């Protein structure tokens, strides 16, 4: 379900993406047409230049095994890159991976932090992130939540490529 929501959010993000819009649009169009080799070929250079949208979609493709065998660790790695750039859909995807231990060590505290960061998006991502954070919070305890909240408040996105 997260993958379907991410696909929808990619289309909305095209107008504000840092990567050249035409290249990104071509990569997303190839993905939507299920031409995964072409999508990967278009998106990978953009991701390597710092496009959070391209990084996130490459993570989705890795998680789903689209165009290559499924690789949860590669998916988490792409999502971590995009999440560190401040891209809320990637932050949510990473939070879910951390909460479940899919492709990355299970860490509910870090999952909570990423979910809380994704809540700032103010869109459907924020609604899902809020629910995830709320579900994790009771298992973390008040003292740990205070520490994690300080980490969340101090977080800043990557700048540059």
Describe the structure.
The protein has 161 residues and is an all-alpha fold. It has a single domain, classed as Serine Threonine Protein Phosphatase 5, Tetratricopeptide repeat (Alpha Horseshoe), CATH 1.25.40.10. 73% of the residues lie in helices and 0% in strands. It contains nine helices and no strands. It has helices at residues 2-13, 21-32, 36-48, 52-64, 72-84, 88-100, 108-118, 124-140, 142-154. Helix 6 runs parallel beside helix 8. Residues 14-19 have low confidence and may be disordered.
How many domain regions? 1
Helix/strand-derived category reads: mainly alpha
Under CATH, the topology can be stated as Serine Threonine Protein Phosphatase 5, Tetratricopeptide repeat
Count the strands? Answer: 0
Annotation field: number of helices: 9
CATH H-level superfamily title? Tetratricopeptide repeat domain
What share of residues is helical?
A: over 70%
Mean pLDDT: 89
Radius of gyration, taken over Cα atoms and rounded to an integer in Å: 15 Å
Based on CA inertia axes, which overall geometry fits? Answer: elongated
User: Which strand-content bin applies to the residues?
Assistant: under 5%
Regarding quaternary structure, how should these chains be classified? single chain
H and E order: HHHHHHHHH
Tell me the major beta sheet.
Answer: none
Instruction: Label the CATH architecture.
Output: Alpha Horseshoe
Residue windows where pLDDT falls under 50 for at least 5 positions: 14-19
- The CATH class designation is Mainly Alpha
N-end to C-end Cα span: 30 Å
């Amino acid at each position: 379900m997260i993958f379907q929501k991410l696909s929808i959010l990619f289309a909305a993000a095209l107008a504000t993406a840092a990567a050249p819009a035409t290249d990104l649009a071509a990569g997303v169009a190839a993905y939507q047409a299920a031409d995964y080799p072409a999508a990967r070929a278009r998106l990978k250079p953009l991701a390597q230049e710092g496009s959070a949208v391209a990084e996130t979609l490459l993570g989705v493709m890795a998680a789903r095994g689209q165009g290559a065998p499924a690789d949860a660790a590669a998916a988490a790695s792409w999502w971590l890159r995009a999440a560190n750039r401040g891209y809320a859909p990637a932050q949510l995807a990473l939070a879910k991976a951390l909460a479940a231990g899919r492709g990355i060590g299970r860490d509910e505290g870090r999952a909570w932090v990423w979910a809380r960061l994704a809540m700032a998006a103010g869109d459907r991502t924020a609604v899902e992130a809020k629910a995830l954070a709320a579900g994790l919070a009771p298992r973390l305890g008040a003292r740990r939540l205070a520490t994690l909240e300080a980490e969340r408040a101090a977080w800043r996105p990557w700048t540059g490529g």
